[in-house]
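Lab notebook, design round three. We kept the backbone fixed and only want residue identities now. Task for the bench partner: fill in a sequence for the structure below.
Input structure tokens:
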């Protein structure tokens, strides 16, 4: 299998596919929705690039991998970060031993050329400039322009893509023109009890029933209280607890104690009492809402006419009561600045 693809005389060195297994357990509907996005139902039809969203550890990447496995296509995963540049996403120039420049195709471009599936993982960590380089790929044009290699790269008809996104705050706002190319949005929820038990058993088939049920009880209670502990957290708690029990066969730790210790070490002391953690979370959410007065319905918060505004007549030309600005304004007056005088 040739790992070099030539476009307009430029040799692109292709990457290798990702071998990760992706068994998706339960929640059939969201998997079917993902597979539907990738169907082409008519020669004039085009595949969709969906957004898979949900809290960390809920299964977004696993779902995308599983969808790719079901279609039996090569899988490529690009891990997006805040400092991803367009050339990282597309083609990177590398100095070869010969002293010449070699062009390396990213996982995305490799998938485009080989007719594979690319998962852009954690897409909302990436900045607008990098997203902009994908705009023509994500609509009917289906190509990218590599500025570095000076070529236009068309996508194979079998190329498919999905983007996973977290709902946390350490992310960029993706511009609307990109979001409108990343549709539909498939939102993952937490698994039901039997599914979550099956997921834990699948990943830790050597865990005994007592440890499994302690973990699944904990996770289900956390889900019902809207706390963001995920299946991944459950897998980690269980894994560490089982290691601690196996560590000293002559004086094994009590199973309950090992599990509780693992819970604390993985998720912190607060996770031991889920109810009070949920209360704290609710209080802090409620605490952010400053109570509204009648005036708030009629005036925007910055409106100088708002009765609670600390606006003062001296600031008439400038709502911002920053002292430095005021000094600047005085300087402007001294210099007889036309614009300032005009405004007054
Ligand atoms: N339905 C499922 N079937 C099988 N495994 C699952 C399922 N849901 C979650 N998992 C397991 O839970 C763990 C976390 O899943 P994954 O890494 O896909 O989450 P994620 O949503 O992509 O997280 P992040 O936002 O941190 O990237 C993995 O070990 C995954 O295999
Ligand atoms: Mg992920």
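Proposed sequence:
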């Amino acid at each position: 299998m040739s790992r070099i693809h030539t476009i307009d005389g430029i040799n692109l060195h292709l990457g290798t596919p990702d071998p990760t297994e992706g068994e998706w357990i339960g929640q059939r509907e969201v998997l079917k929705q993902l597979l539907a996005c990738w169907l082409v139902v008519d020669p004039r039809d085009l595949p969709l690039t969906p957004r898979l969203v949900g809290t960390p550890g809920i299964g977004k990447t696993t779902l995308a991998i599983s969808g790719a496995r079901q279609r039996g296509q090569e899988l490529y995963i690009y891990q997006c970060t805040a400092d991803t540049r367009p050339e990282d996403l597309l083609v990177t120039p590398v100095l070869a031993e010969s002293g010449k420049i070699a062009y390396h195709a990213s996982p995305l471009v490799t998938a485009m050329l080989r007719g594979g599936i690319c998962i852009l993982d954690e897409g909302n960590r990436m900045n607008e400039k990098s997203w902009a380089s994908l705009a023509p790929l994500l609509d009917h044009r289906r190509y990218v322009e590599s500025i570095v290699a000076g070529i236009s790269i068309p996508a194979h008809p079998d190329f498919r893509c999905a983007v996973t996104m977290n709902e946390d705050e350490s992310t960029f706002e993706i511009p609307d023109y990109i979001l409108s190319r990343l549709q539909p949005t498939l939102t993952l929820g937490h698994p039901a009890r039997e599914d979550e038990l099956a997921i834990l058993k699948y990943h830790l088939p050597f865990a005994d029933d007592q440890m499994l049920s302690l973990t699944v009880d904990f996770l289900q209670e956390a889900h019902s209280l809207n706390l963001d502990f995920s299946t991944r957290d459950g897998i980690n708690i269980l894994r560490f607890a089982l290691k601690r029990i196996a560590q000293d066969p002559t004086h094994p730790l009590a199973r309950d104690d090992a599990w509780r210790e693992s819970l604390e070490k993985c998720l912190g002391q607060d996770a031991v009492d889920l109810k009070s953690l949920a209360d704290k979370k609710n209080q802090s959410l409620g605490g952010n809402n400053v109570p509204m007065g009648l005036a708030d319905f009629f005036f925007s918060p910055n409106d100088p006419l708002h009765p609670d505004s600390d606006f003062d007549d001296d600031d008439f030309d400038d709502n911002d009561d920053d002292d430095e600005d005021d000094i600047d304004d005085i300087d402007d007056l001294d210099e007889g600045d036309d614009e300032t005088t005009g405004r007054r």
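Keep this in mind before ordering anything: Residues 314-344 have pLDDT under 50 and may be disordered.
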